[in-house]
Amino acid sequence: MTAQAEDATKVPPPTSAVPKPSLGARIVARLSGGVVRVFLIVVGVFWLVPTLGLLLSSLRSPEDMAANGWWNVFTEPSQLTFQAYETLLENDDITGSLLNTIYITVPATLLVVVIGSLAGYAFAWMEFPGRDWWFLGVVGLLVVPVQVALIPIAELFGKIGLFGNILGVILFHVGFGLPFAVFLLRNFFAEIPRELLEAARLDGAGELRLFATVVMPLGGPAIASLGIFQFLWVWNDMLVALVFTDAGSQPITVALQTQVRQFGNNIDVLAPGAFISMVIPLIVFFAFQRQFVSGVMAGAVK
What we know:
By secondary structure, the chain is mostly helical. It has helices at 2-9, 23-31, 34-58, 62-67, 83-89, 92-125, 131-141, 146-160, 166-189, 194-202, 207-218, 220-235, 239-244, 252-260, 267-287, 289-301.
């Protein structure tokens, strides 16, 4: 009786029931399978088809482009030729505009990176009157659209003699690129451990030396990300160039837009010119891809 009473008083341990996964969890589990990966690969291939078509079109003669589509090169490889690129190099408008694009993009990118890095370090680690208010003003400039400033700055450049030349375009891009640069780099530099900077100061490092030897190496990924963003924005810009350049200072985007108006007479330079205009930013991006990904991931974690 005693054993039966003890067995009766024993309470069975609760069973740990496995919770049923939610609908969202089941959808995510299904989407992470191999079928979705194959689908994403197919989408990526379709995204690359226009680029491949532009490349193959740039390697065909105007007669072949007028006769049939670029996919015919797979059945007739003899259509491929570099004659279009030779014609492009003989076109002074295109080659000059390509050089103008380099003259605009490189200084505009370097100035934004250098000035933005110095300003970001100052806002992050230097004490000066009104620092937080000045930074709020910089953040406020991020919401100012480019279109709002086109007419006032065009009038200003006309009065001081900068309208219609490369310097004016560079200054415009620098002015509108700095708010984002300062905002991005200030937030990145602020995550650097204070102890590291204090140790460098105890060793006798001044602010410029501290910036060059400690902050710049640690901020390399963020600086590379900023450089890529600025380079792509300036290289692919057409609106600012249309307003502030003339025939002698226009970049490749404006030159190609001008050539499109005469499509029937210069079809042989449009495809190679567009491909060169596209492939140079791709080369820059892939050259700094590792630093770019590191900078984006670091910003996401921080």
